[in-house]
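Lecture notes, unit on protein representations.

Consider one protein chain, 251 amino acids long.
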Amino acid sequence: MQPSDTPIYGIHPVEELLSVRRQDVEHVYFDKEKRSAALFELLRICRRERMSYNLVPEAKLDALAGTRRHQGVVAFCSVRPYDGAEVIEGIVAAKAAPLFVVAASIEDPGNLGAIIRSCVCLGADALLLERKNTVPLNAAVAKSSAGMFEHIRIVKPRNLEGLIEGLAGSSGFSVVGAAVEGGVAPSDYDFSGPTVLVTGGEHRGIPPYLQKQCTATVTIPMNPLGQSLNASVAAGVLLYEIARQRKHCLN
C-alpha cells in the first residue's frame, strides 16, 4: 500500500494496514452501529496504540469511502511515511546540541506545512507530532511545505510525553514552551544546548500535559495592538532566534 489521501476501506485491507504501516495511519473511522469481532479487534488496536479514531454514522462512512462496500471501517494514511522514534536516538548520539520541534495541536494544514518549511530552512533536526489533535500529514500539508517535508525527519511517536521526558532526563535537553505571555524574551534565553521547542496550536495552545514538561517558557515581544501571532509565524520567529544564536543557516 502506498501513502495516500485515498481512503482504505474494508476489514482485511485495514487489518493489513495496521499490521505493516501502523505508524503512518492518520485516522480510522468506524460505523458506530455495526458490530463484529473483526471490527472490535481493529477498534481495540486503535485504543491500545493511542491512534486517532471516530465512531460515525453509516452515511458519513459511505461519504468518506466513496462507496457503501466499506464493511464498517475506513482508514486514511499520511502521504509520506513517518520516521520511527529510533531516528531521535540516532540524532542525539550524533550531535552535541540537537534541536527538536514539537508542533502540538496544529489543525490547519497551511500552518503545519509552513512550520515544516521553517524547520528545514532554520536547522531543526526533527519535527515531533502528537498522535491526536494534529492535522494529518496530507497533500495540503505537502503543498504548503513547498516540498520541504521530504527533507526533515517527522516522527509521530506512540508516547510523545515519554519521549520528551527521556530527552529531558538522561539526555539533558531543555524543554522550552512558546507562550503568548509570561515567558522570557527569546533573545534572553540561551538556546545553545540540546533543545526541545514546544509550540502550540491555533486554538488550544500547548496542551496541559506538554506544558507540565516545559522547563522554561519564552514569549515573543509584540506591539500591544496585536493579540497574538499566527502559529506558524510564531514558530518561524522562534526558530530564527535559535538559528541566530547557533549561527545555523544564516551565512
